[in-house]
């Protein structure tokens, strides 16, 4: 099971101070939380601002208003990534390559992303290569928990914790992940509009043009979780550089489906069939009973589509970062506590309130958790809350 993860993760895990068994024992786990909603207290960092992205504007100009506000926060995180790259390759050659060669190496990125990233680079005055790297990063390092649940009336709810920032440095002053903390001020809710009408809504990080969490009011909701595999995203990126450009970036396919998809069934078909650059899990919910599934993807094909079947007692689907037919990494079992807390909640009582309780229970909530999102397709609701996980709390 360890082999499924990259060797670098094993090295990393071995070097982390937290004891291996900690995740299975208090104080790093806790009884299912209750009455945490509306969010307050030490695990709630604060609200997330809304911005409108006008799709009628040319791609180069769309992100301007947002990036004027968030440019300085983006610079902070890009600097952390640069410092890390320079720590690996002290000559500075790696960053020199990123700044001057990455764009050529990758070749032209598909529309509208190329122009959007150029626009972001221009407004923030950050080199295009670094904006592109920032965008590639999410293809490789998102560790998350996603849940779709159906209540007794056949009404669907979709929740997710966005966990991000592993590997990228630990702040020993206050026991936090550096990048996880730096992402909090970049977290935004986006209302993508055409002709002044909402096309879809999403929760994302300013500077990122793909989408990992979002929904189309009335139609469907979608989240993306990272899937680790030896035949992973690195190979896909390499193939892309070598000229094999028939696969889609995963954050881009999710954006495409949210922006131009017209139904749950169509979204499911695209997410199942399109060749993608990195393995992934797509968690897709629809607008009516039974429409919820987890699609486990290889780069070339779908390995499994696991669907809700409330009449068979399967009233929720849960996805973390492991194939459902395999054990989780023993150091990182967020799946069992998520299911256990959903079981305790019962289908009668599932709601935004109780979904937030589940996503607030350690280790489902952990030091990598940047935000928690709750979506209700039918009611057109999307709520995102910034999170903290004060000590004692596990690192992931
Ligand atoms: C930890 O310290 C960093 C750097 O000073 C700060 O940005 C971050 O907000 C702190 N996080 C918490 C949870 O206190
Ligand atoms: C959108 O609304 C603004 C302000 O209400 C208006 O000026 C603009 O013409 C509208 N745009 C479209 C494409 O309808
Ligand atoms: C959605 O479709 C429009 C019209 O065909 C196209 O211009 C746009 O680039 C598409 N969006 C994405 C994210 O591919
Ligand atoms: C649910 O989605 C389908 C397309 O998948 C659409 O035809 C239907 O109108 C939607 N229902 C509601 C109530 O919006
Ligand atoms: C949750 O309930 C299902 C159905 O009763 C059961 O199969 C599963 O083992 C339970 N999971 C946990 C973690 O309690
Ligand atoms: C469901 O919610 C009701 C009302 O809040 C509560 O009385 C009941 O105990 C809950 N059931 C479970 C299984 O938690």
Automatic annotation (TrEMBL):
Signal peptide interval: 1-22
Q: What is its EC number?
A: 3.5.1.23
* Annotated Choloylglycine hydrolase/NAAA C-terminal domain residues: 144-382
Gene3D superfamilies the UniProt entry points to: Penicillin V Acylase, Chain A
Name where it's found.
Lysosome; Secreted
Give GO cellular component annotations, separated by semicolons: extracellular region; lysosome; membrane
Task: Please report the name of this protein according to its UniProt entry.
Answer: Acid ceramidase
Q: In which organism is this protein found?
A: Erinaceus europaeus
């Amino acid at each position: 099971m360890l082999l499924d993860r990259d060797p670098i993760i094993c090295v990393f895990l071995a070097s982390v101070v937290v004891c291996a068994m900690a995740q299975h024992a208090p104080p790093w786990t806790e009884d299912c939380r209750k009455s945490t909603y509306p969010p307050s207290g030490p695990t709630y960092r604060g609200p997330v601002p809304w911005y409108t992205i006008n799709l009628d504007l040319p791609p180069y100009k769309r992100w301007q208003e947002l990036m004027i506000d968030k440019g300085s926060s983006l610079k902070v995180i890009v600097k952390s990534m640069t410092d890390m790259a320079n720590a690996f390759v002290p000559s500075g050659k790696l960053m020199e390559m990123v700044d001057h060669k990455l764009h050529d190496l990758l070749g032209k990125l598909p529309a509208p992303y190329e122009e959007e990233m150029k626009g972001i680079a221009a407004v923030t005055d950050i080199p295009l290569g670094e904006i592109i790297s920032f965008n590639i990063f999410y293809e490789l390092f998102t560790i998350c928990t996603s849940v779709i649940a159906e209540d007794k009336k056949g009404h669907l709810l979709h929740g997710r914790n966005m966990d991000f920032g592993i590997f990228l440095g630990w702040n020993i002053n206050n026991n936090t992940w550096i990048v996880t903390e730096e992402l909090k001020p970049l977290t935004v809710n986006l209302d993508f509009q055409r002709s002044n009408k909402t096309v879809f809504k999403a929760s994302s990080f300013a500077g990122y043009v793909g989408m990992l969490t979002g929904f189309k009011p009335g139609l469907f909701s979608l989240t993306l979780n990272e899937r680790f595999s030896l035949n992973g995203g690195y190979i896909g990126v390499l193939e892309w550089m070598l000229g094999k450009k028939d696969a889609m970036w995963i954050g881009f396919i999710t954006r495409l489906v949210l922006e131009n998809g017209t139904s749950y069934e169509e979204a499911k078909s695209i997410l199942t069939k399109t060749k993608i650059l990195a393995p992934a899990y797509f968690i897709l919910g629809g607008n009516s009973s039974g429409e919820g599934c987890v699609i486990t993807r290889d780069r070339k094909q779908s390995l499994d589509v696991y669907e809700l079947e409330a009449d068979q007692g399967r009233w929720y689907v849960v996805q973390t970062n492991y194939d459902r037919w395999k054990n989780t990494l023993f150091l990182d079992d967020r799946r069992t506590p998520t299911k256990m807390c959903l079981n305790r909640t019962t289908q009668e009582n599932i709601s935004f309130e109780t979904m937030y309780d589940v996503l607030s229970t350690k280790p489902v909530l952990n030091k990598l958790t940047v935000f928690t999102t709750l979506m209700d397709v039918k009611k057109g609701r999307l709520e995102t809350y910034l999170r903290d996980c004060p000590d004692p709390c596990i690192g992931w």
